[in-house]
Amino acid sequence: MTMNPSRRMALQLVGAGLLAACTETRAVGTISSNTDWRDGPSLPEPVQEIYPCAHKGMIHQAGGFVAANGSITGPTDAHWALDQSDGVWRPRADLPSPRHHPQLVSFAGDLYCIGGFESSKDGMWQMQSSVWRYDDGTDSWVSTPELPAPNGESTIGVIGNSLHVIGGRQPKADRNLDWSDHADVGAHFRFDGESWETAAPLPTPRNSTAGGVINGKLHIVGGRTVGGGNLPTHELYDPASDSWQTLAPMPKAQAGLAAAVVGQKLYAFGGEYFENGGGVFPNGWVYDPAHDEWSALPDMPKPRHGLGGVALDGSIYLIGGALKASGNDTSAAVEIFTP
Question: What whole-number distance in Å separates Cα of residue 163 and Cα of residue 275?
């Protein structure tokens, strides 16, 4: 599906006009030894605004914005799985329809695709509430119970027997066609494999966050608001009390970033900002919950936003994204960081 050029330009102008980034650096430690960056198997095609995941020992990637000559052309339904044993991305069953910003998550032995946006001639940001489950045996997708409301640009975490979808954006009125039709929310939906229910909302409503589960609690970091720009905010959800607490903020306010958990620490990378012409963050950070503090990591060799972060076998795969802010210079790069 090809994106109308005027809509693409509108997307970039809306982002530049509404999303100003805070780039103030806080005092943190630095980790510069015993770490390693290396190139991984490139994606079959450039893609950004993705949320891949590990599932049954492989990395799955589906949906997102694909590009021609570096610029996004529209969403895709393509679904790929990376086999570590030979480093090859192989095609799997396409999504039921092309979708950008869909969340992939492995939950209770199944792969799910949740929410995101679809496009048509009427608008490229039609937020969805549908949820699909992938059947590994038949290489097909089936519909499962929908979200209580349309949702996109949220963060997902699995805690025990529950799947959590938190924050992001939802339609602010009946219209659901363009980026400006949506507003930041703190919505929190919990799924037990059969039905959805609501849980304690995210205290700071925002979109384009990242996060991870450590010791049975879900960390949500970074992100941005439609009207206020990037945030360094770090909030923690405790399912035992269905409550939130505020922890040490990220050293920089980064949105559109990726995160993953290795060794009971949270790693966060990349993201974008829109002030002064916009750009992409090269920064990587690690959060130690034992001391509630962040440390700097070696910069990303290929700084990107709209990328996916997946932890597998002690390493973090940083997948796809874009080398410039908004829809520019979409990438097929895969970089592997080993703490």
Answer: 35
Q: At 11, which helix (H) or strand (E)?
A: helix 5-18
| Parallel/antiparallel/unpaired status of strands 162-166 and 53-55 | unpaired
Rounded to two decimals, the pTM is 0.90
pLDDT category, 327, cuts 50, 70, 90?
confident
Residue 100 makes CB contacts below 8 A (sequence gap 6+) with: 49, 63, 64, 65, 75, 76, 116, 117, 118, 119
The predicted pLDDT at position 30 comes to: 57
CA nearest neighbour of 139 among 84, 85, 79: 79
Amino acid letter, 171: P
- CB contact at 8 A, 337 and 315: yes
| 84-113: pLDDT as tens digits | 889 999 999 999 999 999 999 999 999 999
